[in-house]
Amino acid sequence: MKAAILLMAAVAPLAASTTATWEMSGAQDFLKGRFTGTALEADGRLKVAPALKTVLETGQTAIWSVAAAPDGSIYAGTGHGGKLYRIGADGKAEVVWTSGAAEIFAVAVSPAGEIFAASSPEGRIYKIAGGKAAEYFDPHASYIWALEFGKDGVLYAGTGNQGKIYRITAEGKGEVYYETGQSHVTALAVDGQGRLLAGTEPNGLIYRVTGKGKAFALYNSALPEIRRIVVEADGTILAAAMGGSVMSRMGTQTGTGAGAAAVGTAPAMTVTVTDSASAQAGPEIKPKPAATAAPAPAVTAAAAAIVDMPGVDKAAVYRIGADNSVETVWKSKDENVYDIAADGTGLYLATDVQGRVYRLGADRQAALVLQTGEGEATRLLNQKAGLLAATGDMGKLFRIGAGEGAAGWYEAPVRDAGAVARWGRLAWRPGTGKVKFETRAGNSARPDGTWSEWAALGEGGGIGSPSARYLQWRAKLDGAAVVESVAVAYLPQNAAPVVRSIAVSGRAAGATAAASSSAASYSVTVTDTADGTAAPSPGAAQTVSRSGAGQIQITWQAEDPDSDRMVYEVYLRAEGQREWIRLKERLTEAALTLDGDSLADGRYWFRVVASDSPSNPPETAREGELVSGPVVVDNTPPAVKIARAARAGDQAEVEVDAEDPTSALKRCEYSIDAGPWTPVEASDGMTDSPRETFLIKAAVAAGSHLVVVRVYDLAGNAGLAKVVIP
User: Fold this and answer.
1) 636: Cβ contacts below 8 Å, ≥ 6 apart
2) CB burial of residue 532 (10 Å; 0-12, 13-18, 19+)
């Protein structure tokens, strides 16, 4: 019993499914969206953000440094134009110095109110007085990342690529105070006892420098850059560390910035990187003489561009106690922290995700104060009038007010329904305050011109956006409005089942399904193609060994994109017949066995229909189907006739005619006197037709001989004939 499959059927269309719900609640959900004038409390409640006032728009790429003067004015250094701005107490802004270098990474104000700024690259320190700038000190360093005044009025400078700290006592007078062995000194601060604190890159070390050439390693972070150090009133040290270094960013943007220089010139470092939870404060470190700077303590690392690693901590804030114990109070796998500022009651953090500013309370839960909408928030400055936040991508300075703004918007991330969906009702809690919701929908993963316009909700919260695969909502909050959760009901289009393949084979009666593959007399498979058209599989029309007459087994592979349960129907159509005959319905297994004698010799087609009705209402259930190619059922052996038999000396000649009514002939062979079988091809050179003639020529000895001829068809049926050669 054999099956040959040559054709396939197309896949049925898509359909509907059951109602689903998209719910957003909690801080982690809402942080995926966009905040404009809105804030997010640590417990995940949306509300209107504090008022945000633009203090300065520089037109520059970034503001890298800010400092407050005793007269109430603020100084801001920019990149990549290298300008220093003064914002007076009256709010008026002016450029007081253009450095001629690309960046001003550091600005400091002396206890006497003198203004100092450092330019980079080719770093020099300038004193700005009376609207003029004069060079104050040249450390012969590529970059100056930090300036800090000690309690004694001495100016300290953190540099790169040498990783040195300079102590500057007067104009033109300065010396190397400490060599870290790192590539960059990125942060400086002074503790309550007047000791200098320094943060470095690329191995994230925090030092306490107690004298010239003398330092103690307070902590070795697992992150490459210590970006900022702040000392609280009680002496507690707070340090911000980040994984995507600013030096690398500068190299990318300017081509001549710190990242580029670090890659090209910085020596390799060896530093032991330890987990923040278990790292211990290191021993006292004394640098070698200047000619051979002390290497930082041990994993080989070069000051090269930092590559963000998904799933790995990207930033952290550490708290170092009076006993040198270290505690991680905040960390993130998604955002870099650029700056921190303490106000006695909490800690503010500036990050690189849409210029966000967070506040870390006593419970160490982070609340989103607001989102500036810029590329990153680079610096923070506490003032009585409110917190100042500087940004990059563009360089702006904002003042965050103490009171709430009048209104704000929150825009949710895009929701993928997985298929075209009908949108139902939007509901939100707690349902108090004035909140206006709008939605839009489209079939591209990112909103573009093909999406629908924003549309207000209808009566009862009904969504008026058209059916589509993607949906987005936004909410306008007024005054004291609060949103804790938002739920959207939708009905995704039900994807129809897909029948991927059909296999037909013959097997002996009583054989198990497991044994049928080896016992199959004829096995051909048809598979569904990617474009839904029919095509035979690579093994189509394969002929295998013949089994004993018995059964025909039909098996198939089907799947449902929605993982719905399926039932199957199997149909049969004979050659010359127009209508399909249903053999079986409501099958739950992907197999059907027929009595082999129920089908006479001939060509047949099988159709398998898969339905997801067990998992869907009748009006939305869908079907998918596949039609096999022609399956040839052939139980009849070829008719074999001896047309002529003769001897010519010591050679016998036998002419054989063979014919099969259903399939082509495959092989002919003969045996003399019950000896081994010898193959012979058809007279036309190839055995490939339902009717063939074979001419057997064989050497024989004297006397009579029995010649038996055996001819097989494609189904493996064998017909025999015999003749005696006298």
Assistant:
1) 601, 660, 661, 662, 717
2) middle
Predicted confidence (pLDDT) at residue 168 exceeds the cutoff of 80: yes
| Least confident segment among 11-15, 423-427, 456-460, 676-680 | 11-15
CB 638 within 8 A of CB 650: no
Q: Residue 219 phi/psi, 5° resolution?
A: -160, 145
Total domains, the chain: 4
- CA angle (70, 317, 246) in 5-degree steps: 75
Please give the average per-residue pLDDT across 50-61, as a whole number.
Answer: 96
> Which among 490, 428, 495 has a CA at the least distance from the CA of 465?
490
Domain end (from 373, 404, 435): 404
So what's the pLDDT on residue 309?
56
Q: Among 90-99, 508-517, 553-562, 696-705, name the one with the lowest average pLDDT.
A: 508-517
pLDDT digit string, tens, across residues 340-351 = 999 878 999 999
Confidence of residue 543 (pLDDT cuts 50, 70, 90): very low
Burial class (CB in 10 A: 0-12, 13-18, 19+), 411: middle
What tokens were used for 384? 């009585």
Greatest C-alpha distance within the chain = 134
Contact between residue 588 and residue 460 where contact means Cβ atoms under 8 Å apart: no
Q: What is the pLDDT of residue 547?
A: 47
Does some domain include residue 7?
no
Exposure string over 332-365, b if 16+ CB within 10 A, otherwise e: beebbbbbbbbeeebbbbbbbebbbbbbbeeeee
Q: How many C-beta neighbours within 10 Å does residue 154 have?
A: 17
What burial class does residue 527 get, using C-beta atoms within 10 Å of its C-beta: 0-12 exposed, 13-18 middle, 19+ buried? buried
Contact 159, 123 (CB under 8 A): yes
Q: How far apart are CA 298 and CA 278, in angstroms?
A: 16
The amino acid at 212:
K
Closest CA to 682 of 694, 698, 700, 696: 694
pLDDT band of residue 506 (cuts 50, 70, 90) is confident
| Domain endpoint, select from 492, 508, 542 | 492
Q: What percent of the chain has pLDDT over 90?
A: 73
Q: Containing domain of residue 712, as a range?
A: 639-725
Task: Note whether 485 and 504 are same-domain residues.
Answer: no
Exposure string for 588-620, b = 16+ CB within 10 A, e = fewer? eebebbbebeebebebbbbbbbbbbbebbeeeb
Q: Please check whether residues 483 and 610 belong to one and the same domain.
A: no
Do 326 and 380 lie in a common domain?
A: yes
For 95, other C-beta atoms within 10 Å of its C-beta total: 12
The answer, yes or no, to whether residue 534 has pLDDT greater than 70, is no
Q: DSSP for 445-499?
A: SS--TTSPPPEE--GGGB--SPSEEEEEEEEEEETT-EE-EEEEEEEEPPPPPEE
* 328 occurs within a structural domain: yes
How many C-beta neighbours within 10 Å does residue 474 have? 17
State which H helix or E strand residue 519 sits in.
helix 513-519
Task: Find the helix or strand (DSSP H, E) in which 95 lies.
Answer: strand 93-98
Residue type, 396: K
Which pair of structure tokens corresponds to residue 205? 């070390």
CA distances, 420 to each of 369, 372, 438, 466 (Å): 37, 35, 19, 10
Task: Name the percent of the chain lying above pLDDT 70.
Answer: 82
- Arithmetic mean of pLDDT, 54-78: 97
The DSSP code for 562 is: T
Q: pLDDT (tens digit, 9 = 90+) per residue, 675-714?
A: 999 999 999 999 999 999 999 999 999 999 999 999 999 9
The more confident residue out of 431 and 359 is 359
- Spatial CB neighbours of 324, under 8 Å, sequence gap ≥ 6: 218, 281
Please give the average per-residue pLDDT across 587-602, as a whole number: 91
